[in-house]
Amino acid sequence: MFVLTGPELHEALILPSTLSTVETVETKATEYAQMAGFDEDTASQISMVSREAAVNAVLHGNKKDPHKHVRASFSLTPDTLTIKVADEGEGFNPSDVPDPLSPEGLLKPSGRGIFLMRAIMDEVHFRQLSPGAEITLVKHRNRS
Amino acid sequence: MSMNLKIRHVGGITVLDLSGRITLGEGSIGLRDAIRDALAAGSKKILLNVADVNYIDSAGLGELVGAYTSVKNAGGDLKLMNLSKKVKDLLVITKLLTIFDVKENETDAIAAFA
């Protein structure tokens, strides 16, 4: 679905629970970050954390279940770039994820995805769905 | 583009020249295998050249951490060199720069293994 309404741009995708979805979300996020006018480094970081959200949805949320889908949307307004990624899994509590900066977390090989989202984006929101979970990533265009 | 990896030996040091993307999947597994093989071959001094790495995600960071702990646990020493601004920023954000021994270039890195 592709909708262009005035200065706003919005696109929503329904994707399979496969690793190709990770690439699709990353590519689309890069495209929107570039359209938003972010510099190359910022666009690359937005692309990377969008990829993290997609990895979480495919692997941890839907557990690559072929009967479940990932919904991704990309919205550009004059003020913000918003990327949402939702899965159909069992949901999760972000506060259950250990702090990767803690002494015990620093040498863990995993658990940095949500931390990176929060470090790089201006806003990160989590919402429980039934079923599933949705992550919303927001970057303000005037703060790049 | 996935990760490419070339292996060189400089003195008693195994240098892994990484390029491309260190991300979830084949790229990061390639690094894991290379570290395992180097340790199995008795190499205890390992230098990761990330000059041409243009993208790392959290899985890739996890692989770098895994490489570090594998080498440390084997009684070896792992260093990183030639970090791009993009990679360095990521290591700063995640505080991994406090873990890794990072050198500006190969000359400094080789000397630091002595």
The whole-angstrom Rg of chain B is 13 Å
The major beta sheet of chain A can be summarized as: 6 strands, antiparallel
Considering residues with a beta carbon less than 8 A from a beta carbon on another chain, report the largest interface and each chain's count: A-B, 22 and 25 residues
CATH superfamily of chain A: Histidine kinase-like ATPase, C-terminal domain
Question: What is the number of domains of chain A?
Answer: 1
Can you tell me the CATH class of chain A? Alpha Beta
| Structural domain tally of chain B | 1
Unreliable stretches covering 5 or more consecutive residues of chain B? none
Q: Average pLDDT of chain B, to the nearest integer?
A: 93
Query: Order of strands across the biggest sheet of chain B?
Result: 1-2-3-4-5
Helical stretch tally of chain B: 4
Oligomer: heterodimer
SSE pattern of chain A: EEHHEEHEE
Number of helices of chain A: 3
**Could you name the CATH homologous superfamily of chain B?**
STAS domain
- Estimate percent helicity of chain B: 40-55%
Per the principal axes of the C-alpha atoms, what is the gross shape of chain A? globular
Largest sheet features of chain B: 5 strands, mixed
Summarize the structure in words.
The complex is a heterodimer of chains A (144) and B (114). Chain A has helices at 19-35, 40-61, 113-120, and strands spanning 2-5, 8-16, 69-76, 80-86, 123-128, 133-140. Chain A has 144 residues and is α+β, with helices and mostly antiparallel strands. A 6-stranded antiparallel β-sheet of chain A has the order 1-2-3-4-6-5, with helices on one face. Chain A is 33% helix and 29% strand. Chain A has a single domain, classed as Heat Shock Protein 90, CATH 3.30.565. The longest helix of chain A has 22 residues, at 40-61. Chain A has 3 helices and 6 strands; from the N terminus they run ββααββαββ. Chain B is an alpha/beta fold and 114 residues long. Chain B has one domain (4-104): STAS domain (Transcription Regulator spoIIAA, 2-Layer Sandwich). Chain B contains 4 helices and 5 strands, in the order ββαβαβαβα. Chain B has a 5-stranded mixed β-sheet with strand order 1-2-3-4-5, with helices on both faces. In chain B, α1 (26-40) packs parallel to α2 (58-73). The model of chain B has no long low-confidence stretch (mean pLDDT 93). Classes of the chains: A alpha+beta (144), B alpha/beta (114). The interface between A and B is medium-sized, with 22 and 25 residues.
